[in-house]
User: What shape does this take?
Amino acid sequence: MERVRNINPQRIVWNCKEFGITPEILSEQLRISWDNLEKTMQGDEGITVNQLRKIADYFERGILFFLDDKPVNEDIIYTLQFRTLTGQKPYLSPELRVLIERVEKQREIYISLLDELGENVETDWTNYKLPSNTLKDIKQSAARVRKWLELENQESFDTYRFKVENKGIFVFVTNGYIGQWRIAKDDPIRGFSLYYPTYPIIAIKKQSSARPQAFTLMHELGHILLHRDGFIDEEKDFYSTVGKEKVANEFAGNVLVPDEFLFQINTNEFPFNEVNRYNGYLTEFRQKWGVSVEVILRRLLNEGILEDKYYNEYRDYVSSLPIKSQRGGNRINRYQEPVKMFGKPFVGAVLNAFHENRIPLTKASTYLDNIKINDVHKLEKMYGRV
Assistant: This one.
């Protein structure tokens, strides 16, 4: 097998550092002889073309990346938006860093498809500005956004998402399967946002219930609308009581559960000192508003209706309950996964581009997470021309 010449070993070293591994570990994971890889690292002919391709695929780079004799320029490799997130949390896992890049590429594909279709990418989002981004005006800001999104008295995560997407924001939800579109269960990251003047990104970690995802969605929307910047948020950030995270939390709470919603709850009969009854008492409201019980409780807490001790007791109670297993879904419905992950507008753009012969069927399959050709046709039957 022909050995590859002119590989830049420093680019292998750089990628290894990004992934938190050594070249020795790389050779072990890819089952490449260390003797051959070591020769390459020393500037000699060592690995084969196929082995270089394995390395490129592992790091999700092109083969030509490793043949470039120049040092890696991170300002070119990574977008400003990506560097904003890694600057906030430098310890992000290699898998998550790759996921962020992958989601950015999906956004680029989406915009490219819209351009091919002659769609106007100057959406409602482009010119929408809130008059204030301060905590003291958070209720007014939330009310404006509810009106802007045309939210009703009864919503679900899917309707919240679709209304946000319709304003020109790309919403991505990870899937529950082990794979390239997943955030690991033990990873503390719950969501992130990437700020762009057109089609900013909101990414949400899939959870066992869709209702907590609604809070993640509005929290990240708050960062985009109020702070005009990208953020990457751990679970603890959604309980923060300081800085921009507090602002985003209160914004999300007021968008999902405005004051007029709270007035519907009969607090005179609320079982304050029986936290095990909270879920049952608030069932009607959480189902109607598409939120978790905790979101309602936090609004009651912020309005001085619920005491801290009861809120904390409820959280302790929930923590003591058995953890529900997170189901990734039914693989029989594999064809629906691109919609769940990338949203109806993205899938619609792919199908429309295919129908207008802008892209071949194989390309449509690639854009839709490499689903089978038959699955693309199933999506066509379900959505037709979007």
